[in-house]
Amino acid sequence: MYISTSEQHIEFLKNTVLKGVENAFENNQLIFGFMSLAQAIEILGAYLDDKPLRAKRQSLKRFSLAINRLFPKEYSKANDKNFLYYQLRAYMTHFFIPTSRLSLNFGAGTKEKPHLAVIDGVMYLYYKNLFADFRQAVLILEKRILDGKLKLKPISLGKVND
Description:
Distance between the termini: 17 Å
Structural class: mainly alpha
Oligomer: single chain
């Protein structure tokens, strides 16, 4: 099956991408929640470029596109020199653990340790803050799809038996 229509793409974003990330966090899977969210940011970026969905060596570019165009400006600053990409997306995808330069946390940022703050060389990420901003990024992308502002790429979808 191919996902090709606006409606199918929006359903994919809501029911597969967004819901998959949300499920990981709801099941107290902090590592997999952050890891899948970082991968999902890259998926959002794939909607923003002009390359085929399966184009090779686009991970960094797509992650950064999504961060810079769909997330609040604080994320662009946090991703300076591709920090978030390398520390969150790349390292966690390959090793299933955060680097010593990240503190992944349940809940929301605090006054003492705000979301995206760097304290003693460690950036603090809070799932509630990041997921809320991710959800908003998905909504922005959905609006662009509905408004016809994106050229949609077909996605081949295999059957998942659960």
